[in-house]
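Reopening this ticket.

The earlier resolution said the output was attached, but the attachment link was broken on my side. Pasting everything inline this time so it's all in one place.
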Amino acid sequence: MSLKIYNVLSRQKEEFVPLTPGKVNIYVCGPTVYDFSHIGHAKTYVSFDVVVRYLRFLGYDVLYVQNITDVGHMLDTGEDRILKKARQTSALPMQVVETYTRAYFEDMDALGVRRPDISPRASAHIPEQIAMIEQLIKEEHAYVHDGSVYFSVASFPEYGKLSGRVVEELEEGARIAVREDKRHPADFALWKKAEPEHILRWPSPWGEGFPGWHIECSAMSAKYLGDTFDIHGGGIDNIFPHNECEIAQSEAAHGAPFARYWMLTGSLTLDGIKMSKSLGNTMSIKDALARWRAEAIRTFILSSQYSNPIDFSDEAIEAAYKGWQRIWGAVSLTREQLRHAAPGEITPDVMAMLAVTREQFIERMNDDFNAPGALAVLQDLTRQVNGLINEGGPQTQGTLAAIDALFRELGGDVLGIVPDREEGGADAEREDGLVRLLIDLRNRARANKEWATADTIRNSLKELGIVLEDRADGTIWKLG
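Inline output:
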């Protein structure tokens, strides 16, 4: 089965065929860096992290671009989000930008989200945005009014093809601030005249000003990926007006299709209610990470199809954590047994089992990146591995190494939920040595019937997230 993607633009699943064989260009709308990222951002960027990981797993050469919006994202009041934050905190706008850009990447690193190949900033690509606006004016898709430039939606008949919005039905004031200098209420700003008090400003052919929000993505995607590229991703909340405006201005300027496949992640609610700062029901990624392991958060996000809405709650994350623990328990058990396994090749029955698992995993992921289905395959593998080891099945080095390698490949490289402890090098060896020392001390205490001391060691390790499991062939440890 070849990879199929649900294309929001065509509203159907399509076989994925990249523009250039073997190569995939993907652009995902990045964060506006005026505050700490929240778990809704985590849903989008973990989802696309897995998309990119899987495309590379399939052998594609992927160029992944994700922008940083550090200027131009306007509130409905017409105020720039970053300038508002700067005023509230008595900071310079670029101080705000640097603070929250660094925080964003810290959060993504902590969640195991691999960094994009290119993370262009809007403020660093003003010349490209101005050049594109000039082209739109030349093609009569945009007009100038008193130092500002607006895109004329009437000049682009296909406006609304992504979201399904009909221009004629757009009422004045519907999410778009009505201005007397716009010919149509749906016309959107490409360039805004800077008022005297506006700090972020650049020279342009129309006077000092700053770019609108939508133009940055069109200009930067064209610069790094070309006028037409393979996949455009983002959150469903931005389908209108942002994504719709991207398509209109890009195709009007270049006379070519923009993105060929549109993938949008579903929204995330918190205890059944849409997150809103005004309601005080947001949760930052940092707060979430302080309560739960990154792997638990990733497992929770991947337990629902990326395009579906999902509700974040204590119960849901705990359920995901337990599911991850089952997988990690099998991984830890396999690695522990591998340390002491006798030499030998992989047995034919295990080889066949792993081949079926890999085939099923690929089949699920080829169906529009079906991560919940892929997780189910790993859970099946977990049950089989536990049965194999606990029932005294063949435990040669070749068998256990092959099981571990498949967990690393599918659960680690693709889904990003199976940690690779060996990456720690000397630190991992030191950690294992210290735990084994404590296990030896506990075993001596038990031999001397010093039960209180033995229980203290076991309970102290458990508080640190290390679970001991007493088996007929000795005590093993795993992360709990």
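Reporter confirms the inline version is readable. The first strand starts at residue 4 and ends at 7. Confidence is low (pLDDT under 50) at residues 171-177, 422-426.
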